[in-house]
Amino acid sequence: xxxxxxxxxxxxxxxxxxxxxxxxxxxxxxxxxxxxxxxxxxxxxxxxxxxxxxxxxxxxxxxxxxxxxxxxxxxxxxxxxxxxxxxxxxxxxxxxxxxxxxxxxxxxxxxxxxxxxxxxxxxxxxxxxxxxxxxxxxxxxxxxxxxxxxxxxxxxxxxxxxxxxxxxxxxxxxxxxxxxxxxxxxxxxxxxxxxxxxxxxxxxxxxxxxxxxxxxxxxxxxxxxxxxxxxxxxxxxxxxxxxxxxxxxxxxxxxxxxxxxxxxxxxxxxxxxxxxxxxxxxxxxxxxxxxxxxxxxxxxxxxxxxxxxxxxxxxxxx
Length: 318
Fold this sequence. Notes:
Blueprint: H1 5-12, H2 23-34, E1 44-50, E2 53-59, E3 62-64, E4 67-72, H3 82-96, E5 99-103, H4 115-129, E6 133-139, H5 142-152, H6 155-160, E7 161-167, H7 192-202, E8 228-234, H8 240-252, E9 257-262, H9 277-293, E10 299-303, E11 308-311
Parallel strand pairs: 4-5, 4-6, 6-7, 7-8, 8-9
Antiparallel strand pairs: 1-2, 2-5, 3-10, 10-11
Helix pairs in contact: 2-3, 3-9, 4-5
């Protein structure tokens, strides 16, 4: 495979709500670019209402029967859908041997905070009752919603979440975010102005320091019994320093994490896998991590022919 960086960047820019973009045009570009009729890796698609929320259920050929991932798509809070993210999530489901639930969250500005967070809470309540291990996945603006979910949970519900997987997470929308003050930062896909505009369309200005919106403002008391976090991103992202600050916060409060940075890559490079070999390798790394990391004992896997297999799972520390 020959990498085509220019084509990858052109595609990925459609994920970011540029300052001069119109909402409906932005949304349509995402749907046109990322919606695929046929899913990769023989992943099966089922549409189902969960907690009153339309969801795509993505089941790979072989998956852990006692594990499910809720995935919150990015799209700058105002774009994206279960249709436009299902191909990416199908690849993730296959790599991680995990069934993925992809909810159709309500979008800003018509449905501002906390509408999307409430949608995810409703899905979580149903899956929590099924007594399976739950993973939370998200990318970009979806990371804010994912972290908001976990921060809003306590005790047993929070303990049910085995790990959080974040791709290129947006973690600080406040006016004090360093990326809004540093003039020399450059990024091939996103801009500081785009992130600022996104935050202002998602919620009102005085709420931008709410940890359920900007997780960088989490307090120590909020991080007790917090799930481990796996973050994957590109080296060239404007949000690198922000993510490093977030990791420092996790470390200071004894929250285990992994920061996986792909050299030379841009924002959400994983969603341009037809142009970048690094995208395939990155998803494979996450798959290996999830398969080996999320159960301490033997895990039963299921496939479409109802056969089973067992794999030993090794717990690795931070």
